[in-house]
Specification:
Elements: E1 2-9, E2 24-29, E3 40-43, E4 52-57, E5 61-63, E6 77-78, E7 81-82, H1 84-93, E8 103-112, E9 119-129, E10 132-142, H2 149-162, H3 164-167, E11 177-178, E12 184-192, H4 198-210, E13 217-219, E14 225-239, E15 245-251, E16 257-263, E17 270-279, H5 286-293, E18 298-301, E19 305-316, E20 321-332, H6 334-337, E21 342-355, H7 365-383, E22 387-390, H8 394-401
Antiparallel strand pairs: 1-2, 1-8, 2-4, 3-10, 4-5, 6-7, 8-9, 9-10, 11-21, 12-17, 12-21, 12-22, 13-19, 14-15, 14-18, 14-19, 15-16, 16-17, 19-20, 20-21
């Protein structure tokens, strides 16, 4: 499969004033073995090293390869600008009236020629970060097997215009994302054995994702690793039966509280989860608030806990879905749970969101989670970290801390 990264005037993607004389460059990247399609493509600066160059506008012509050495040919795009060495090469090679100062990654063409009906996937730039470029498939089109790159670019621009439902949301970061099954948490859990280091495990899993050792799952560019800490005050819902689960207060940034509610009759991959944000209560008025707002519920307070969580955030280049590989450590102090603190360490694989793209399929979420969970389990086994795939919940852990049974240490 051949791949061409198009570097062009930013006006080719955004409705800003075009730059007269701006160059349009087709940078041929290293060929990719196989014939798999991609919902997204992630290019680090090193991945943009040129294997061939064509100037398509303003005057079409092939360009010589950048000279090797001094890092000149190591990349064409680095961070949010042309690579310094590549920019210097263009200044020396192109006529002085050809502008390169407004160039940006615009499209990536992934051309499948070795098929009865050749076709090209069109991926539009969705995110620029120092670590790399994220592109999202917005169209695809058939063509002749020997179609030259200039024809492919013309067809790609036309195909993208007719697929504006995918290309337009990418113009604003965040609008290019969607979620499925609103109000539902989709999450697989692995309960870790005694002695597991949550931070060591975080670094190991991040490194595997960064090295491409998690299959199609790559670090989410610009959101690769996040860290969290908070305290939770939990009330189990006992009755009525159809409302069982829990209500939990978590302190918000403004001093108010966020109320999380989970409903589930049994622990499973999917559980209902909703939030009420900005609740004006104090710790001394939690129960008064619940009695007033939920008079139909019978609740009981469970031990409070503090929670530290490190998330390795990844997304599948095959499906476009993103997941948090969340290494979680929950501690209940002795005053709530007996002699000494009780600790629950878990690794959760949770669906986060999906990138809008041509061919988006929410039915692939479950298969993704199963695949990613299996890859994480393979790492745990290889590193000697004991863990058991389960749906064991924090509610069950808190019940045990309250004295109903002996829980994990």
């Amino acid at each position: 499969m051949t791949r061409h990264l198009l570097l062009g005037d930013i006006a080719l993607q955004y409705p800003v004033r075009p730059t007269p004389g701006a160059a349009l460059l087709a940078v041929r990247l290293a060929d990719e073995p196989g014939d798999a399609g991609r919902a997204t493509e992630y290019l680090t600066p090193a991945d943009t090293a040129p294997c061939g160059l064509h100037l398509l506008r303003p005057e079409p012509r092939a360009l010589p390869d950048p000279p090797a050495g001094s890092g000149t040919a190591a990349a064409t795009w680095a961070g949010i600008a042309l690579d310094d060495g590549f920019g210097a090469f263009l200044d020396e090679t192109l006529p002085p009236d050809v502008r390169t100062d407004t160039l940006a990654p615009v499209l990536l063409l992934r051309t499948h020629r070795q098929l009865a009906q050749p076709f090209t996937e069109v991926l539009s730039c969705a995110r620029l970060r120092k670590v790399g470029i994220l592109l999202v498939r917005t169209a695809r089109f058939p063509h002749e097997a020997d179609a030259p790159v200039a024809d492919l670019v013309a067809l790609a621009e036309s195909a993208r215009e007719t697929a504006a439902e995918y290309a337009v949301p990418l113009l604003s970061e965040g609008r290019g994302l969607t979620t499925f099954e609103s109000g539902t948490e989709i999450e697989q859990k692995i309960t870790l054995g005694p002695g597991a280091s949550s931070w060591r495990l975080t670094k190991e899993l991040w490194a595997r994702a960064d090295r491409g050792l998690l299959g199609d799952f790559i670090p989410e560019p610009g959101y690769e690793l996040t860290r969290w800490h908070f305290e939770q005050h939990t009330y189990e819902v006992l009755e009525p039966a159809g409302e069982r689960g829990y209500l939990a207060f978590l302190r918000g940034r403004d001093g108010r509280w966020n109320l999380k509610r989970k409903r589930f009759e049994r622990e499973a991959l999917r559980r209902e989860e909703t939030f009420q944000r900005g609740v004006a209560v104090t710790e001394s008025t939690f129960e008064e608030f619940l009695s007033r707002e939920y008079p139909e519920l019978v609740v009981r307070r469970l031990p409070d806990f503090r929670r530290t969580r490190f998330d390795v955030n990844v997304e599948s280049t095959r499906t476009g879905h993103a997941y948090g590989v969340e290494i979680d450590e929950v501690t209940v102090e002795g005053e709530n749970g007996g002699d000494g603190p009780r600790v629950l360490r878990q690794l959760e694989i949770e669906y986060l969101h999906s990138r809008l793209h041509e061919g988006l399929d929410p039915a692939s979420i479950d298969a993704d989670i199963a695949d990613l969970t299996g890859r994480v389990e393979d790492h745990l086994k290889a590193s000697g970290t004991p863990g058991e795939r389960t749906f064991y919940s924090k509610l069950a852990f808190l019940r045990e801390c309250a004295g109903e049974a002996a829980g994990p240490q």
